Amino acid sequence: MDQTSGRSVASVAVCGLDGSVWLEGRTVRLMQDGLQRRIPLTAIEEVRLGVGPEGSVEVVLTASPGTPPTVYRLEGGAPRAAEQFARTVNEALPRRMPGAPVRDGEQLVEVLGNVSPAARPPAYAGRWRSRLLIAVSALLYLVGLAVFVAVDDIGRAMLWGIGVLPLGSGGFLLSLGMSWWYDWTVLNRRGVSVMARHARGFESRSHFAYVDLQGVEREIFPSLPARHYGGDYTRLAIVFDPLRPTRAAPVAPGRHFAAQISGPLAIGLPLLSLGLFMVPYQVIDFLFG
After folding, report:
1. Residues with Cβ < 8 Å from 186, sequence gap 6 or more?
2. What is the rounded CA–CA span in Å between residue 17 and residue 203?
3. What's the pLDDT at 117?
4. Is 238 within 8 Å of 250 (Cβ atoms)?
5. Is the pLDDT of residue 61 over 90?
6. Crossing angle of helices 254-278/280-288, nearest 10°?
7. Whole-prediction pTM value?
8. What is the Cα–Cα distance from 138 to 279, expressed in whole angstroms?
9. CB hemisphere CA count around 219 (13 angstroms)
10. By C-alpha distance, which of 28, 43, 29, 37 is closest to 104?
């Protein structure tokens, strides 16, 4: 007899050179060699790190006494993801009563057939700080404009008046690019790989749900359709920050990240430079020039 817990567990995943494996509810899903297998946790003896290439994992099935167990091996995954997957699955395995008969785990594996390869964060807790920053900036902008108009410096007043546009848009684009860069750095350093399932929406408006390490279900809304990241409409491999589970992103190669931030940086830097000349520099030149 097995004892199982009703607590949700993280849908941790490992994407290897020859396929992928992930935890989905009370089953392990293995996609390899063009086939997808559904392995119930009751059929698994243990998940261990494989001998050989770093990041390899082995799913060892239960077997009758005297019979060698079936072992499914996946190679070439990320070492951190492989360790997290093995630890999470082993902790989720049902406890077997001493003396209980052991079935051949291979008989419980379901082959699903051929397959094609393949949340928004909650509101910022310090929103009032952003509103205060906007209010103070607006006040300084109006005071500066009033001063230039009062001293009849029309040239500086015009630069000051319209300079807020490139300053604001350039600052926004740069902060967006730097935010993506920071998230990418954090996720590469300590991120946990999981397989998210389709929750709602269609195509580019699809939301995907995943379970974090505390068993809490969360959602992610990719900026591009799932197929762009190598997934499909039913599932998407993502990585999230265990210290802040709402920080999540689809698993994608480095070139995708480079292309993502190149736009904001290439456009934001010139705009910000122009805005700094049209606004702050005018004050410095007026006071000290």
Report:
1. 241, 247
2. 27
3. 41
4. yes
5. yes
6. 30
7. 0.52
8. 13
9. 12
10. 43
Under 8 Å between Cβ of 9 and 211: yes
Q: Is 184 in contact with 250 (CB distance < 8 Å)?
A: no
Which DSSP category does 289 fall into? -
Distance CA 231, CA 225 (A): 9
CB distance 247 to 121 below 8 Å: yes
pLDDT digits (tens, 9 = 90+) for 192-222: 888 888 888 776 677 888 877 777 788 888 8
Extract the tokens encoding 212.
């974090």
| Cα separation, 23 vs 15, whole angstroms | 12
Band of the pLDDT at 250, cuts 50, 70, 90?
A: confident
Judge whether 193 and 251 are in contact, CB under 8 Å: yes
